[in-house]
Design a protein that fits this description.
The N terminus is likely disordered. The protein is about 75% helix and about 0% strand. By secondary structure, it is mainly alpha-helical. Helix 3 runs parallel beside helix 12, helix 5 packs parallel to helix 10 and helix 6 packs antiparallel against helix 20. It starts with a helix and ends with a helix. The protein is globular. It has a single domain, classed as Sodium:dicarboxylate symporter (Proton glutamate symport protein).
Amino acid sequence: MTAGQATQARPRGGILHWLSQLWVQVLVAMVAGVVIGHVWPTLGVKLQPLGDAFIKAIRMMIAPIIFCTVVHGVARMADMARVGRVALKALVYFELVTTLALILGLVAVNVLKPGEGMNIDLAHVDTSLVKTYIAQGKAQDVSHFLLQIIPNSFVGAFTEGNVLQVLFIAVLCGFALAQLGERGAPVAAMIDNVAQMLFKIVGFVMWAAPLGALGAIAFTVGKFGAGSLLSLGKLLLAFYATCLVFIFLVLGPIARWAGFSLLKLIRYIREELLIVLATTSSETVLPRMIVKMEKAGCDEGVVGLVIPTGYSFNLDGTCLYLAFAAVFLAQATNTPLGIGQQIGLLIVLLLTSKGAAGIAGAAFVVLAATIASAGTIPIESVAIILGVHRLMSEGLTPTNLIGNAVATIVVAKWENALDEEKLAATLNA
């Protein structure tokens, strides 16, 4: 290399090039948020609108992006039997892995016993703040969840932002375009062009990700900082450890079986992981995950079905949280919970955990629904962890994201719709 070439090459490794990367900007913003929230907690709480605005800006794009991506993917498949086969394989995978997550959560909380010795008397706990969550939780059951998949109107699915409703309509439209054949081709092409426009808009919004991360982290630390960490620190550490065990001892072997490195995949989606870690919302990166999984060699149709469906049916971190938190509340309130009752709780969780998407405060509401359905743990006890729910979300949302990334690659490989050379080249880049 000549001196001139060396001079031209050096800036790429310089600090400006390094700081131009989104994941570095988000990481710096998160550190700044921690400092602001700790040193100036009042200011940190006031920065909450930055995080909320970023989340809202991304959420407004989710419904149209899912619609366009799924419609184009299903129409391009043409073979309706294949669409059904992909959906069935995805659901089988989701059920198996989320069941493993629930079992691990129950085993971990029984071994670590984070609630033992707390001896909390609910008569001295303020439950007024959780009445809304309890009411929402009691309203959730299997029939209600299934009926919610069908929107009240075509447009209603988009205005309400319900992922499953949008997915339901998109699959129907994709089927219809495939049946139209050549007459449907111009419409499919137009929808693909609209999708590309929407992804460009998401790219613009993502420039605000560092600000969103700054506001969300500053608010979390400012409002729930040291006091919450000290009072329920054992719960948080035990839960974070359980999430790590699941990622590396459950998802890790699955990734090896599918022929790729989980660590390299985590490195590939590091920007998305930092964003969900800061905002505690995995929805903020759904559009980016669709793009990244396609770039990694997964078929467009498979990605369009697996990613949106996974946001309701493959929430591994949420399953860990539900199992862990439910038994923790029993331990903290000295509620007897035998093996038989925990097996019953597991069966209830297999159903209620699938309704976590499309509900405000999803995981917390489903926790209330689970406890209400099981009928053994006092439902008012959910007030105990209300203050640290957002801190627990720092563990469950990244686990959800990694779980859905692994699921997409596994289902694509299972369907022979994975370009393994492209995947290897992408993860090794």
